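Reminder to self: tokens first, then the designed residues, so the page reads top to bottom the way the pipeline ran.
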């Protein structure tokens, strides 16, 4: 399985927005977007301003969403093909599929500080879906799925520490969290407003339809 192993802050600087790839660090003054480099792309030629053509504008939207959810091109194309087969707006269907990924759900439940940490939590076998072990971060959750933490001291301790580190966290409306038992239920489908970064999904549809 391919994965990006470079510096996370480089991706945020390239897109010019916070992608929240490093958890609570992104909310501090250490965030690269908050520092003097916020207007510069990474690399020795970051000070140069590229031509902002229509193709580049569409490409940047696609890359931003891919990096936000931590998926590579092949996986992203597969989600796009699934979205095109659904009735209604293809862009919204694409974002809905990405939001329903298990690693994103674990992150939205505040069981992990970032999606990268959520993927590690899943692949190491700490997460259960409907009582069964699921170690595939790309698993697409469905309405009614019950997500829980493995009944083991190390798994419970790890998730408890994350919850305690951010007591003011509010779960989105399509997820119902039971903090006491470390269980959650998918009670609906994510809406367009649940995406936490600015996205023009129509531009993504246009470039992927070429």
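Designed residues (210 positions):
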């Amino acid at each position: 399985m391919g994965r990006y192993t470079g510096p996370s802050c480089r991706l945020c600087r390239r897109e010019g927005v916070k992608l929240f790839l490093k958890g609570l660090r992104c909310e501090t003054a250490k965030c690269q977007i908050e520092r003097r480099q916020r207007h510069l792309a990474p690399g020795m030629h970051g000070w140069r301003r590229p031509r902002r053509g229509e193709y580049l504008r569409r490409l940047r939207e696609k890359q931003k969403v891919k990096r936000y959810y931590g998926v590579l091109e092949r996986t992203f194309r597969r989600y796009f093909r699934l979205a095109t087969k659904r009735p209604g707006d293809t862009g919204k269907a694409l974002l809905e599929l990405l939001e329903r990924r298990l690693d994103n759900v674990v992150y939205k439940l505040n069981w992990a500080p970032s999606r990268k940490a959520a993927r590690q939590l899943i692949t190491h076998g700490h997460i259960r879906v409907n009582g069964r072990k699921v170690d595939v971060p790309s698993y697409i959750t469905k309405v009614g799925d019950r997500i829980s933490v493995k009944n083991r001291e190390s798994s419970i301790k790890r998730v408890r520490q994350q919850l305690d580190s951010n007591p003011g966290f509010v779960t989105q409306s399509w997820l119902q969290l039971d903090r006491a038992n470390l269980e959650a239920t998918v009670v609906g489908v994510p809406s367009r407003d649940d995406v936490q970064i600015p996205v023009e999904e129509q531009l993504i549809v246009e470039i992927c339809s070429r």
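The chain has eight helices and five strands.
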